[in-house]
Description:
Oligomer: single chain
Low-confidence stretches: 1-81
Structural class: alpha+beta
Number of helices: 13
Amino acid sequence: MSNEPPDMTEESGFEPLRATRQTALRGMSTYQGTQNSDRAADGVDLFRTRTLTRREALQKGGLIVGGLSLGGSTVTRTVAADRESEGSQESDMDSSVASIAEDAYLYGLQQIIFYVTRFNYTQKENSDVFVGVNRLYYPNDGQPITADFTAIVTPNNTTLYGMGFLDLQDDPIVIEMPEVTDRYFSLQLMNQYGIFPLYAGNQFNGTDARSYLILPDDYEGEIPGDFAATDVVQAGTKTLFTLVRYALRNPTDESEIAYVNDLQEQTNITPLSEWLANDRSGVPRVEQSVVPGDYETIPRMADLTEQQVENQTPSDFFTLLNLVLNDPSMSLIDDSRKEAAMLERLEQLGIGPGLEFDWSALDTDVQEALTSGFESGFERVRATVVEGNSDVVVDMNGWNIVQNTADFRTDWLTRAAVADFGFAGPDSPASHVGAFKFTDANGEQLNGSTQYTITFDLDNFPPVTEFWEIPIYDAQGYFVENELDRYSINSYMLEEGLLHTDANELVIYVQHEKPDDSEQVTNWLPAPEGGMRFAARFYGPHWSLVDGTYDMPEVVPAEE
Length: 560
């Protein structure tokens, strides 16, 4: 058995540290290096400045760059040697800034997507998903999700969602869930790091009606005795993304949809003070006032609420990262030395708690170095999932399963990959796992102009305790309108007799054009016209779906 401390990873190289928020945010004038400081990692001593220019860095007396002391009285050189050295040192400085920027992309992507998504739900009043804080938004007014829903990438199409953001800054929150005995349902809460302080539902704690009390970090108020200790949730922060899912067994059955809508109406989110004033009962959503969020924004915020990862610029990213780190509702991880070290590095760029970041005030060379690191981070995250980085995904017969078995406090690359390709995906396989597919059985990029089949043996479906689903998206991860309003094939459709089987097989026909054969139309999964991808879901997976040993069928192109 390894004796390695639990908070140490190969990526971090740091030993555990019980750090307080104040430790992580050391005063700007009191930095002291540690044995594993970022000086060794970056080749640059850590210093404190709100904005960094190359000139300021090089003129700083005694600053350590590349192992040389610049501007110190003990160094004597010729003018030519000084110029040559200065050019080398400037190159080192640019490289260091780019390195910090690349790591910052991995570190901050999840938090920034969280921040902008929260803006979309709670502040952007002309948004389709605007509901304010502490209220649930039901896509498509409680009907099955269609191509109109673009608030998050790669949603599932087998459950009816409720989504919203909790704000715990002024009051704890009470969430009431109804009794559900006949289907999958879940309540999940995610913080800005992609970490879930609560998984609840039939998979986790049964089918009874329950009331959960969600407490902010540092809460010192009274806790009513009504709540079971198991249902009191220490959030560790003051803002959470809320996901409520109820399975929809037959999306064409209006009575089935109405039944699930009734479950949604029994799902209440209420500030504790209002819950107490309402005779210890939740306030129904239709009776709640809309309370907009009050969070700092940037001028381009509204432009980033769709395809954020593709649309954000380096200026957007680093400005938003500074807002995240100064948001009073987003508590830092108080026991992560890796995050504390990242904050120290970011201070070199003028980013961090208590700092004001201004992209326009940076020298062009620094902007270029930040841009280089930003682009490298983007490419690294994309390649991790698309090309199959074995540290993050496992190959399941051509389907890339994200390994959400690590700790998102320190596993920033996996955290960023999940945020990019499936925001609000779980940090644990206990809930579900996702398998991405970008190429066909021949290694060619998937495209709706080609006809494909996916063939399951009826004796070898994905082993799950809940359900499996194969949704299809365009290349950006969004549903595309089609004549069937069908965006996935799932195990419930098979159980409900909505799919055709023959010769002990289920054949799914994936193509843009409607098949001529009526039996093929029954199993038709309409494809976008151009580029596309899959993000299969396995809820309640057996371990063979986690480690990739299940024999998942390939996406086979039709013979010419």
